[in-house]
Amino acid sequence: MKIFHRLGAVAFVLTFTMATALAAAPKVALHLQGLLFAKRAGKTVTVPIDRLLKAGDLLLYRIDARNEGKAAALGLAPVGKVPARTAFVRVATAPRGSHVEFTLDGTHWSAHPMIRVIGPNGKPTEKPAPLAMYRAVRWSLTTPFPAGATAAFAYEVRVK
Length: 160
Hints:
By secondary structure, this protein is mainly beta. It has one helix at residues 2-23; strands at residues 28-40, 43-48, 58-67, 79-81, 86-93, 98-103, 109-110, 114-118, 124-128, 136-141, 150-159. The chain starts with a helix and ends with a strand.
């Protein structure tokens, strides 16, 4: 009989601990916004996209992250895709302590993507991939994302 009571207490403690852990879980919300660079009063500003885009337009994609949970989030790694008919230009914002990587194929990630080309001597060699080949950018936070914290991640693309 004592064994049953002890097991019941252990089950209660485990259930209570799990419920407490779930209540203290992180809850990260991500919001993506696309903006157009425009000239206003002689200054370059970002404005909501309110017209059809044309070749040469420069866009800013911004991902805003907020941890609405009660615990730090581990391994936060937002990904920004480069839309069809656009070319990657640059990372505009990377939070302190983040590691930025890019992909050419959606599978393999690298801080410095390389491509294989045939050199003048006819032998294969590797060189940095042109920015126009980038298909997505990923920021990996190297530290926990605290409860209540916010962060912005942004990149620019140009319409082809």
